[in-house]
Amino acid sequence: MRAAVALSRRCPPSTTAFSVGAIVVDAWGAVLAEGYSRRDDPLDHAEETALRSLAPEDPRLVSATLYSSLEPCTERTSRPSTCTDLILATPIPRVVIAWREPELFVDAEGVERLRRAGRTVVEDTALAEEARAVNADLLD
């Protein structure tokens, strides 16, 4: 999770979107992919950029974990698929987040949707304050 929060600090600034980092690791902890918001395009989300470099049928994903500094989105106007949908299009069984998305831009339901789909979601609040601090300009 610490690496995902570190990636969030690399996000280009935005007044309309959170700065988020995401990492996908295999069962042994090796990094398979990483991404952050606005990495390649101003509309990019962190999970989207990380998953873009992996084939959804990659066999390593069946035991992988996706770490995200913020709850995956469930509402989006800039792209056809939400980050939650992108995760559900893979066999990734476990998602760990630092904090839930505050109701600033949308009413996020990523944790609930992932759990209803049978995915394990862990809220690792130990780094929640660090993840929030990266976005302090939006929350003040």
UniProtKB/TrEMBL annotation:
* Source superkingdom: Bacteria
MF terms in GO: catalytic activity
Task: List, for all copies, the residue spans of the domain called CMP/dCMP-type deaminase.
Answer: 1-112
Enumerate the SUPFAM superfamilies for this protein: Cytidine deaminase-like
Q: Which InterPro entries match?
A: CMP_dCMP_dom (IPR002125), Cytidine_deaminase-like (IPR016193)
Q: What is this protein called?
A: dCMP deaminase
The species is Streptomonospora alba
